[in-house]
Structures are given as structure tokens and as C-alpha cells.
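Next comes one such specimen:
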Amino acid sequence: MTEDSTNSLEKRKQIVNYLVQKTQEGKTYFKSKSIAKEIGLSSREVGSNLPIISKYHPDLDISQHANTSSTTWRVEDSDEEDDDE
């Protein structure tokens, strides 16, 4: 694994940990720039990693909700959805 891919993996872990924590607190909608500010990444890094995370992280249901001046993401804990059925 290259240093670049290790760095990308660490960023994704950081984003996932943040989203898991916030969804457990009941939050559903996020802006890339707000996530970035909280965890010390750029909004571009967050925005480019969220679609990748949505493909490979089955515990989070991530979708692009709106694209205004900055993208809003809808994030839900997939496990909680299954519990409702």
C-alpha cells in the first residue's frame, strides 16, 4: 500500500467515525464544509470521499441530497433502518 492510499484510507476512517457518531446522536443532514471543519479536512476531501464511503461502508446509507452553494448529504445508520422493519 502506498503512502497516498494509506492517507486516503485514514481520511475515510476519520469521516466514517464522525458520521457514525453524529448519526447515533440523531443527526441526518450534513454539509461537506461542516464535516471538514469539524475533523480538519478540506470540504473537497470530504466531498470526494463520501461517494466512495457510500459504496464500501454498508452500515451507512449516504446519498447526495441537494447541490446548492455546497452539497448536502443525507446520512442514516443502515442498521437502524433494518430495526424498524
